[in-house]
Amino acid sequence: MPPYSQADQAPAVGILGTGSYLPERTVPNEEIAPAAGIVPEWIENRTGIVARRRAAPHQATSDLAALAATRALAAAGLPADRIDVIVLATSTPDHPQPATASIVQHLIGAGQAAAVDVNAVCSGFVYALAMAEGLLRVRGGGHALVIGADVYSRILDYSDRRTAVLFGDGAGAVVLGPVAADRGLLHTVLRGHGDAHRLISVPAGGSRTPPSESTVREGGHFFRMDGRGVREFVSAELPQAIAELLRENGLSPEQIDHFVPHQANGEMLRSLLPSLGLPESALRLTVREFANTGSASVPITLDAVFASGELRPGQLVLLAGFGGGMNVGLTLLRWGVDAPAPVLSSGRSGQERHVLTV
Q1: Active site includes 249?
Q2: How far apart are CA 53 and CA 169, in angstroms?
Q3: 262 annotated active-site
Q4: Coil, helix or strand for 174?
Q5: Which residue of 51, 203, 214, 301 has the lowest C-beta tally within 10 Å?
Q6: Residues 6+ apart with CB under 8 A from 18
C-alpha cells in the first residue's frame, strides 16, 4: 500500500488518550516451562520474557478490549457516546461473527458508533489506526476508538516451546480526534507479503478446513509459527521499511524519541536494533513482564510510555507492527498530549506503570 501522509488531507488527526488492561493472573516462566519440556532460564535467555498475563476463564477478548477502551476514554476526557468509529484489531475474536468490535460498542455504551474488526494479526493495531484515521477524514472529523486486543492463551499448544512461551493476553486502546496541525499522525506505511502467509497460522476452523473431530484431534486449532522464518522475514523487511519512512519524511534515526515496536521477542528486537539504525535509548519494551500480546502489544507499550511521563508533546514516536499474513505496518506521529498526573483516572495500576525495559 502506498504511504499515506497527513499532509495529503486535513484536518490533523492524533491521539487524545491511551489506556490498557492486563488480566490479573500472572504466569511466570516457572509455571509454563515444564509442559514445553524446557527450563525457565531457556525462555528468558531466548526471548527476554519472565512472565505473561492470563485472562480469567470468564473473560473473552471483548471484555479485555472494553476495559482498555474505558481507560483510554477516561484519559482523553471523552464519554463513550462521543465516539463515532470503533476499530478493533484482533486475531482471537470472541466468535467468528459478529464482529468483536460490535460487542465492545455495546459493553462501553458507544451508542451508534460504527464498529468493525481488523485481522492483520500482530500488525493489526497499526492497520486499525490507519483505517480509523481514514474513516475520520472521510466523515470530516469526529472521534475514533482504536483497540488492539488478543487472548492467545486460548489457542496455544502448551507442549510447543516455539509458541507457548511467547504469548500473553491483554488489550490496549487509543482515542483519536482533532489535534493541532503540526501534531498527530504524520505518515503511515502498510505492506503485505502474502506469499509468506504460511509462516504464521491457525490451520483449522475456517472455510478452508472447517472444524471437525479430526481437526481437533490433530491440533489444527492451535497457533503455529515458523519461528526462524518469521525472524528472517522481520530482519529483511523491517529495516528497509523504517529506512524508507525516515527518508520520505526527511528524518534521521536520531530524531525518533520513542520507538514502540510489536513486542514479539525481546532478544530479537534488541538484536535487530543496529540494523534499524535507531538509537537504543528510543526502544520501548514491555515484553519482559507481559510477553507477546499480539495486536495489543503496541498500544499496551504506548500506554506504558505515556503513563511513565517520558512521552512529551512535540516528540516523535514511531509505531511498528509486524506479523502474520505476513504484514508490516509503520506509523510516525508527533505527540500532542501532556504527560498524565501521578494518579491516573484511567485506572492504571502501579505495576502497569513501571514495566518499560530497554
Answers
A1: no
A2: 6
A3: yes
A4: strand
A5: 214
A6: 72, 75, 172, 173, 174, 175, 299, 302, 303, 306, 307
Helices (H), 6-121: 29-36, 40-47, 61-76, 100-108
Q: What is the pTM of this model?
A: 0.92
HSE-CB at 89 with a 13 A cutoff on CA atoms is: 34
Query: Which residue type sits at 188?
Result: T
Phi, psi of 188 (to 5 degrees): -130, 135
In the sheet that holds 327-334, the strands lie side by side as: 4-5, 184-192, 327-334, 316-323, 258-261
Q: Which three cell numbers stand for residue 69?
A: 477502551
Q: Which of 29, 262, 265, 327 is catalytic?
A: 262
Alpha carbons 276 and 269: distance in angstroms, whole number:
10
Tell me if 86 sits within 8 A of 147, measured CB to CB: yes
**Do 239 and 216 contact (CB within 8 A), yes or no?**
no
- Annotated active-site residue in 122, 143, 258, 327: 122
39 vs 35: CA distance, rounded Å: 10
Compare 8 and 129 and report the one with higher pLDDT.
129
* pLDDT greater than 90 at residue 2: no
Which is the catalytic residue, given 29, 265, 292, 327? Answer: 292
Which secondary structure element, helix H or strand E, spans residue 138, and what is its range? helix 124-139
| All three cell numbers of 185 | 499522525
**Amino acid letter, 29:** N
- Integer Cα distance of 264 and 125 in angstroms: 14
| CB distance 282 to 259 below 8 Å | yes
Query: Residue 258 has what pLDDT?
Result: 98
Query: Active site includes 221?
Result: no
Which whole number is the average pLDDT over 80-84?
97
The per-residue pLDDT for 9 is 53
At 125-170, the pLDDT tens digits run: 999 999 999 999 999 999 999 999 999 999 999 999 999 999 999 9
Give the span between the Cα atoms of 55 and 327, in whole angstroms: 26
Q: In the structure grid, which three cell numbers stand for residue 287, read together?
A: 515484553
Tell me the per-residue pLDDT of 158-216, one tens digit each, with 9 for 90 and over.
999 999 999 999 999 999 999 998 899 999 999 999 999 999 999 999 999 999 999 99
